[in-house]
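Saturday, quiet lab. Running sequence design on the structure tokens for the scaffold JK sent over.
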């Protein structure tokens, strides 16, 4: 089997653990390649299989699909999330920094995401503004999608099976998520204040 050829022209983003590339042969997909070990991909693969077996609603997460060989090593394939205009959906970090969505609209969608994760008992180990994308149609925000970190938050397999442990994990990850969002908003306010002072 010929390895899928990846290069910097296809690079979407590079995180701490993996680099994400456009799939060169299918624009609906992206490929994540581990920079160190395959631990995160293996855990996502296991958790994805578990969620499929329990028939969870996967409409607000980019689910692991399958693995392929690439010139950079084994790659994990996921859906690539787009806006209505055909551009790749921006991360929540980008949306906050560019003020693309107003606070009221964003707060409403954050609440919807929180309720979705809670209702479907979905755990996200690293719920971060960098791992959530915002799907727009024109200027209107349609929904948020978690594109990374949907895995068992610990090594205990009961973390994703016992409701009490799931809720505890969700509360912890959401608290951290909100703190990161508030930090980004504060950074933008400080930057705006500095720009006004310099004018």
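Result came back. Writing it out in full:
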């Amino acid at each position: 089997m010929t390895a899928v050829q990846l290069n910097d022209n296809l690079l979407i983003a590079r995180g701490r653990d993996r680099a994400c590339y456009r799939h060169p042969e299918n624009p609906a997909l992206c490929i994540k390649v581990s920079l160190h070990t395959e631990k995160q991909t293996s855990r996502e693969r296991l958790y994805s299989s578990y969620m499929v077996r329990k028939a969870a609603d996967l409409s607000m997460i980019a689910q692991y699909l399958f693995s392929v060989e690439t010139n950079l090593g084994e790659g994990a394939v996921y859906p690539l999330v787009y806006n209505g205009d055909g551009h790749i959906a921006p991360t929540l970090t980008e949306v906050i920094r560019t003020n693309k969505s107003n606070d009221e609209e964003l707060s409403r969608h954050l609440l919807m995401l929180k309720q979705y994760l809670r209702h479907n008992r979905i755990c996200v180990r690293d719920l971060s503004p960098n791992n959530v994308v915002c799907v727009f149609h024109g200027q209107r925000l349609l929904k948020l999608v978690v594109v990374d970190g949907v895995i068992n938050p610990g090594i205990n397999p009961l973390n994703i099976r016992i409701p009490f442990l799931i809720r505890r994990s969700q509360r912890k990850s959401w608290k951290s998520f909100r703190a990161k969002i508030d930090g980004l908003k504060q950074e933008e306010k400080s930057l705006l204040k500095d720009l006004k002072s310099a004018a």
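Notes for JK: The chain has one domain: 8-198. Strands lie at 11-14, 18-22, 29-34, 66-70, 73-79, 132-137, 140-146. Ask whether to fix the surface positions before the next round.
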